Amino acid sequence: MKVTPENKCSLCTGTKCCQYITLHIDTPRSMADFDTLLWQVSHRNIQFYKDSDGWFMLVVEVPCEHITETGQCSIYEVRPMICRTYSNDECEFDSSAEEGFELFFDGYQALDDYCRRRYKKWDKRFKKLAGK
Fold it and tell me: What is the DSSP letter of 87?
């Protein structure tokens, strides 16, 4: 069977698109911004990425309460507009979302390592941030 946008959702067993929400965040520009992001990704089920379009997003891994055990939407006929307009032309059924990200941080250590490379004085930020 050929996979098409019309039949893709029925072939997906992971219900990947309904397992998280993304929140657009302002572009982090300073050590203080990245320190705040470090705090955010320190929480369970939180990730942070920059997509190929330059958007910075926070990912909150929390499944939709309307997805049944069989992966179906229990409110399909009255689902919110964002669900109705969601395009599956390029989705995680085709490839991992991380493949299209310019930056991806799945936790504290990954983001801290990046910040150490980006900022030479990253480890001294506490003194700098406390002085403001």
Answer: -
Please answer whether residues 116 and 122 qualify as being in contact, where contact means their C-beta atoms are separated by less than 8 angstroms.
yes
Domain boundaries, the chain: 8-130
**Count of Cβ atoms closer than 10 Å to residue 85 Cβ:** 7
Q: Which residue has tokens 């150490």?
A: 116
Q: How far is CA 118 from CA 3, 29, 55, 76, 109, in A?
A: 42, 11, 19, 45, 14
pLDDT tier at 125, thresholds 50, 70, 90: confident
pLDDT tens for 83-113 read 999 887 777 777 776 777 899 999 999 999 9
> 15, 116, 132, 128: which is closest to 63 by C-alpha?
15
